[in-house]
Design a protein that fits this description.
Blueprint (H helix, E strand, L loop, with lengths): L8 H10 L8 H10 L12 H18 L7 H13 L2 E3 L11 E3 L4 H19 L8
Antiparallel strand pairs: 1-2
Helix pairs in contact: 1-5, 3-4, 3-5
Length: 136
Amino acid sequence: MTTPTRRSAAAELIADFVSTGGHLTDRADLARFLRRHHLATEGAIPITLADLDEAIALRDGIRAVLDRDAEPDTEAIARGQKVLDGLRVTVRLEPARDTGGQLAPAVVDEVRRGLARIAGAWAAVLATGEWRGLRV
């Protein structure tokens, strides 16, 4: 008998992000996701179509890495990597007590800050190996 283990907050965020499926089809969906996961403040969030495209590319790239049952979608992975390459993050000098994430957004834009937090969560699940237990 195996003992069930609880996912980290980072793994939960990634699991929720990749499972958005048809629920990330417009800017309002992205705003709801960011708010629900406390990745953006309440109130109006100016989200451009380019922001939505980046969020979808990042989600699809992570999903492609996690989908070990299919041939790797190298194009989706490359698009997701391009989004990650464009995000600015910084490393916290002291341990973060609130989120446990050591990577913090280094951007002012609300949407990109949310995507940078998702990037930090992805880095955490890669570092701990938790990504291997996540499924699409």
